[in-house]
Design goal:
mainly alpha, 5 helices, flat
Length: about 120
Amino acid sequence: MITKSYQKKVKKILFAIFVILHEFGHWNDFKSKGEKPYYYMQDMKEGKEVYDLKVKILKDKSLQNASKFKVMKELRNYFYRYNLVSCEKIANDYAISKLKDACSIFDETRNVFNIN
């Protein structure tokens, strides 16, 4: 029987695995572009637009006393836009493509980590 405690642990571990794979995705993308920062950073304009959106949200005085719903709506919009930036999408796609294999390895070795 799978307990809620076990499910929480697994979710945290899967998220950590995804984040690590995402960063490997950035590295893989950089390597595929000949390790040339100029080619890797071609999407700086869209990245700057998303960064500017984050700054706008953080400085928005109306959000300081806004409802949780309004704040979450703004954050969802930011994260949606952030994940559309080319280099982030490439890294996410890489992570997703490797996640199944990583989960299989995790499942085979979970006793080593004492996750029950």
